[in-house]
Every structure is written in C-alpha cells, then in structure tokens.
Write a structure and sequence with these properties.
- By secondary structure, this protein is an alpha+beta fold.
- The protein has 17 helices and 16 strands.
- Strands 1, 5, 6, 7, 8, 9, 10, 11, 14, 15 and 16 form an 11-stranded mixed β-sheet that branches.
- Helix 8 packs antiparallel against helix 9, helix 11 packs across helix 15 and helix 15 packs antiparallel against helix 16.
- The radius of gyration is 37 Å and the shape is elongated.
- The N and C termini lie far apart (116 Å).
Length: 572
C-alpha cells in the first residue's frame, strides 16, 4: 500500500518542500515590503527634521532682523541678494592704466542721521568696476520685489575705501601728465552730503580740521616729491584757489575778491587779478586750502542742511625759470547737484543757485564728451566753469578724471540714480559682467520673484528727467535770463555811481565859477548845466529801463515757481 494511502492527511516530501519554499518567499516579500516602508518613513522623518531645521533657521534670521525698520522686508531681500554675489573689491594691487577720461564712482558710508531715520543701504559694489542700485518696488498686487539696476565705470569704490586708495586710481596718474607739459583735471560730482568735500579737501566735519587726507593735499605731496627730486631746480610750484558762485568768480586767497573772466586777443581765457600763491612745501598747500574753505560759500537746501553752493577750484601750476607755464592740474569740488523739482521748492536765491549749478554741470559734461571724441570744437563757453577750465579740454595731453559721489540710503536713491546716469553719459561702458554664483532652483525662484522680469506689473518708475517738462525748462531759462539782467543792472548802477562822482565835481565847478564872477556868461552857464543834467538823466533812464525788465523777470520766475510747487502739477 502506498504511503499516501496509509496516511491520507499527510503531505508528501515534495509538497512539504514546496510549501516551505513558498513560506520563505512570502517572508522575503514581507521583509522587502517592510524594508521599503521603513525607508520611506525614515525619508519622511528626515525631510521633516530638515524642514523644521530650515524653519528654525529662518525664525532665527527673522529674530536677527530689526523689524522696527519700516523697509525691513526690502533690507532682508537685499541681504539675501548680496549673499548670492561673488565680491571682488578694488585693492592696491590692481594696475593703473593711462586713460584720457577716467570715470569712477564712490559710495560713502551710511551716516548717523540715516541710521537714526532707520534708512536702508541700497547700494552694492560687487567688484572693482560695478555698482548696483537696489530699488524697492511693489507690484500691482502689492507683492514686494527688488529692481536691481547696474552701472559700470572704470573703478568702483565702496564705503570701506580710504582717500589714499581713491587718490591712487584717480588724481595720482594725472600728476605725471602735468610734468610732461600737459593739463589735467580731477573733480568730484554728486548730491549734497555725498562726501565730495571730504574726498577732495579732507575732513572738515570736526572741530580740528584735517586737510592732509584730501586729494588736494595728496596731489601736492606727489608734486613736491618730483619737484624736489627729478625736476629739482627746474620748476616752481604755484597755486590758485577760487570759487564760482552763480556764474561769478571769487578769489578764495584774496578775501573773496570778485574777479572778471575775459578772453584776450589770442582767445585765451584769463581770470583777471586772480592771485597766484607761490608754494614751497605741502604745509603751504594745507594753509591755503584751510583758509579758502573757511570762506567758501555754503547754504541750506532741501537735500542738505549744510551744502556747498559754489564750485571750488584749486589749481596747482608748474612754472619754469622764465615763469612760463609748464603744466597745470585743476582739482574741483563741485557744488551739490540738485534736481529741478528740489530747487523749485526753495527761495529765489537757492533756485538761481541751482539753475547755475545745473547749467555748468551740463556744459561740463558736453566738454568732457567732446574731449573723449577728440572733437575739433569744444563748447567751453557754455558756462563760467567750463570757460576757466578751457585749458583742460584743449590739447593732446589733456586728461580728465571724474569721481561720482553717491549716498547709500534709500531716501536718496533718486539723487543717486541721477548722479550715476550723469556719470554714465560722460563715459558709457557696458554692464554685462557681474560675477554671480550659479543659482539653485530656490535662488532662481527668489530672483524671478524679487528682481527683473516684473516689468509688466511695475508701478511707473522714476525716470530722472524732471527738467524735460516745459515748465521746468521755462524756469531754468528764466533764471539764466535773470542772472544776465542782474549783471546788466549792477553794471549800469556801478557806472552811475562812478559818473556821479565825476559830474558832482562838474556841478560844483559850474556853481563856483558863477558865484565868483558878477557878470558871468549866463548862456554858457545854462548850456553847461543842461548838458550835465541831460547826461545824468540819460543814465538814470537807461538804468530804470533795465531795472523794469529785471523786475518783470522776477515776477515771471515767481509765477513759474508757484506753478511747479502746485501739488497738482508735481503729481503730474
């Protein structure tokens, strides 16, 4: 009998073997399923821990942010954006190239006033020639983002840069040029309070004035180094220091004596009676600078409580033994640049100051561009400033360096953009190269959200061209005409005073001759007296006519200014 028949409930050996194999396979499948579940749970757990860590990190960062700052969200965006940049700042090791026109930008540190107002820093200098302006913007749906505008120049100096480093790349290369018989010019341009006077003249903010660290003194140091070395006994050093205020020139080394700017028979521009001071050391230069800066014209504007309202021109002149000019460098601290709508809201004197400043800055820009293009004609007659600097625009060996000074605060961003656009027009360079780290997906999403690519939803941007409106143009033209009228009235008034002394003596002479002689010639007496009276009357009538035109100009200027100050006009 077969075993299966003897044991009907028992399995065969093969069946048991198969059953055991199936059980093992089922156990393996179950273990595999369990393993996958464990891995998935571990993955979820890890992600949860990572998410919690990220949330904690964001929470800590948020706690570090000063949320009392009105624009703290934008400040945080700027901080995160800067973290994505590769910084390559300017150092002393960079080579200095010989350039006919050099345009630089310098950012001053944020000051106590801006810190107290909780202003935010919106300027970044990521490398040696690039400047970024972070404009806080809001889309139509109130989503906040940054509009990062790029400007490229020959050199970019951040807030940590010293005057010595700025001098190395700006005025120092010009010193060799004047010893080679050329003329050079270095000037600082920008909004009031942006650090122009500190850069050019030194620190005048403290009680103890320090002129030794400004470009004026640093240039003089290198000039004397060569005069007492390679050129010893061959050249003498002289200086002049004058200011241009409302188109008029005043000598800062001669008690602000008013000077005349004339062209001689050779078409050379001469500043009549300008005092030239001989220099023997750097200390002499410092004394001249301190004396002149103390009497320089300053005032209050809407942009700054203590603003330099004149162009200060300090010139170092090299002369040979025959007193013939060998070379000259002009170092200029320009008056604070003002937008048209800022000057229009001030009193008439400030508006006239602003009009003359803007006029001279526009003329200066055109002269520098003509120099760069090597044009045969340079429009130096556009302003008094460019007239007295004519030598710096003419000739093969003429060189110019511009330092655009900018403030870091968001409250001054429109002034900053105007300064950067002005400098950009002087020497246009590309802005393609900015070293930015390769973005992760999150950074790219952040960049798309907060930066470019939102133009269709942007609010209307500030275009920086307030003065293109007809009213602004009328105001600028009227202010320029007023200055010409004022000059004519003052000149006629002066002539009348000088002539009065002459004719007063004539009145006395006629009278005395009459009373001394009993039988005087009455007809001659009447004729002589009539001639004197007619001459005086003609001068008075001429002065009165000029004065009437001047008064009409004042009324016209007042009317245009009130129109511009109208809130409805300013909104437009």
């Amino acid at each position: 009998m077969a075993p299966s028949e003897l044991y009907p409930n028992s399995d065969s050996m093969d069946d048991r073997r198969n059953k055991k194999s199936n059980n093992n396979n089922n156990n393996n499948d179950e273990m595999r399923r369990k393993s996958n579940v464990v891995k998935e749970i571990e993955k979820i757990k890890k992600n949860r821990e990572q998410r919690r860590a990220n949330q904690e990190e964001k929470r800590q960062k948020l706690n570090e942010i000063d949320t009392s700052v009105p624009a703290w969200e934008f400040a945080n965006m700027i901080t995160e954006f800067r973290a994505s940049l590769d910084f390559n700042r300017l150092t002393n090791s960079e080579p200095v190239h010989d350039m006919r026109i050099c345009v630089c930008v310098r950012k001053r540190p944020i000051n106590k006033k801006e810190i107290s107002k909780k202003d935010i820093d919106v300027i970044t200098m990521p490398n040696k020639d690039m400047c970024l302006v972070h404009l806080p913007k809001c889309k139509v749906d109130l989503t906040k983002y940054l509009d990062n505008q790029k400007f490229r120049f020959d050199f970019a100096f951040d807030e940590s840069t010293s005057n010595d480093l700025v001098y190395r790349y700006t005025a120092q290369p010009l010193v060799n040029n004047i010893f080679q018989g050329g003329n050079a010019m270095c000037f600082a341009y920008g909004q009031t309070g942006s650090g122009k006077t500190f850069t050019m003249g030194g620190d005048f903010s403290q009680k103890n004035v320090d002129c030794s660290k400004g470009i004026y003194a640093l240039t003089a140091r290198d000039v004397f180094k060569q005069v007492n070395g390679k050129f010893k006994g061959q050249l003498e050093v002289f200086c002049t220091f004058f200011e241009i205020y409302c188109g008029k020139v005043y000598d800062l080394l001669n008690n602000k004596k008013k000077l005349r700017v004339l062209e001689d028979h050779k078409n050379q521009v001469q500043v009549v009676d300008l005092r030239e001071q001989i220099l023997t050391s750097v200390e002499d230069v410092l004394s001249c600078i301190q004396y002149g800066m103390n009497i320089r014209t300053s005032g209050t504007t809407s942009a700054n409580a203590h603003s330099s309202r004149s162009h200060a021109v300090f010139q170092i002149i090299l002369r040979n033994k025959t007193k013939k000019e060998h070379g000259k460098i002009s170092l200029i601290d320009l008056a604070g640049s003002e937008r048209g709508k800022d000057t229009s809201s001030s009193d008439r004197i400030t508006r006239m100051e602003g009009a003359e400043i803007n006029k001279s800055l526009l003329a200066l820009k055109e002269c520098i561009r003509a120099l760069g293009r090597r044009d045969a004609h340079v429009p130096f007659r556009g302003s008094t400033l460019t007239k007295v600097l004519r030598d710096s625009f003419i000739g093969e060996h003429s060189k110019v360096c511009m330092i655009a000074m900018i403030s870091p605060g968001n409250s001054d961003v429109e002034h900053t953009l105007n300064t950067l656009r002005y400098a950009d027009r002087v020497k246009e360079l590309g802005t393609d190269e900015v070293n930015v780290k390769e973005n992760t997906e999150e950074e790219e999403e952040y960049r798309m959200k907060y930066s470019d690519g939102n133009e269709e939803d942007e609010e209307e941007e500030y275009d920086g061209e307030d003065d293109v409106s007809h009213a602004m143009n009328d105001l600028q033209e009227t202010l320029a005409e007023l200055q010409d009228m004022e000059e004519q009235v003052l000149e006629s008034h002066g002539d009348l005073i000088r002539d009065n002394h002459k004719w007063t003596n004539e009145y006395e002479r006629i009278y005395e001759e009459t009373i001394k002689v009993v039988d005087y010639d009455r007809e001659e007496y009447a004729t002589r007296l009539d001639n004197v009276i007619n001459h005086n009357m003609n001068m008075l009538i001429n002065l009165q006519k000029k004065l009437a035109i001047f008064k009409e100009g004042l009324l016209k200027e007042e009317k245009i200014s009130k129109t511009i100050q109208n809130p409805k006009f300013r909104k437009n």
